[in-house]
Write a structure and sequence with these properties.
Layout: H1 3-16, H2 26-39, H3 43-69, H4 73-83, H5 97-118, H6 121-137, H7 139-163
């Protein structure tokens, strides 16, 4: 739906305490309506500015991923600088659950890469939780994420098998 439909879903949750049965992206609306209720903020400005916060989260996520992949600071800075173009996209202007799910993707990649690197149970749990909630942001993004992580995992396994101890930073 459009921007005003999303705001309508927010108002529905705030005024009734329930999510609409036609709301296909409940997590986005529940998170934002909770923020509005707890902080006692106006609905429309929060909906408008929340997307800018998620865009910032996207840039932070890309920076973290670039630190996992690139050793050189210059490559990390170029990644962050090029990610600034996200602010000129419609997903950064309007409250759209699909946009929020896309902005969440780099953080999932970061957690995935850290889990592969550290083999720590806390990173595994965080990854499982993030992958579990992603379809509630937007199911299509979740499908893309599953495919991407499977392909990356297969490539890492194949490259480890062919090249011995595989390290992303050696690419």
């Amino acid at each position: 739906g459009d921007h005003m439909t999303q705001i309508g879903y927010l108002k529905g949750i705030i005024y009734t305490g329930y999510s609409n049965s036609k709301d296909f992206y409940p997590l986005t609306h529940i998170l934002l309506s909770t923020l509005i209720l707890v902080a006692d903020l106006p609905i429309v400005p929060v909906a408008n500015y929340s997307t800018a916060m998620m865009s910032t989260l996207f840039i932070i996520g890309l920076y973290l991923v670039s630190r996992c992949i690139f050793e050189e600071k210059k490559a990390q800075r170029i990644t962050v600088a090029s990610s600034g173009a996200i602010f000129f996209d419609r997903y950064s202007l309007y409250f759209m659950p699909n946009g929020w799910s896309i902005f969440f993707v780099p953080l999932i990649f970061y957690v995935f890469l850290k889990e592969r690197e550290l083999k720590c149970i806390s990173w595994k749990i965080l990854l499982v939780v993030m992958l579990f909630i992603l379809p509630f942001f937007h199911p299509l993004t979740a499908l893309y994420m599953i495919v991407a992580l499977v392909i990356i995992s297969i490539l890492i396994i194949l490259l480890s098998y062919v090249g011995g101890n595989f390290n992303l930073k050696k690419i």
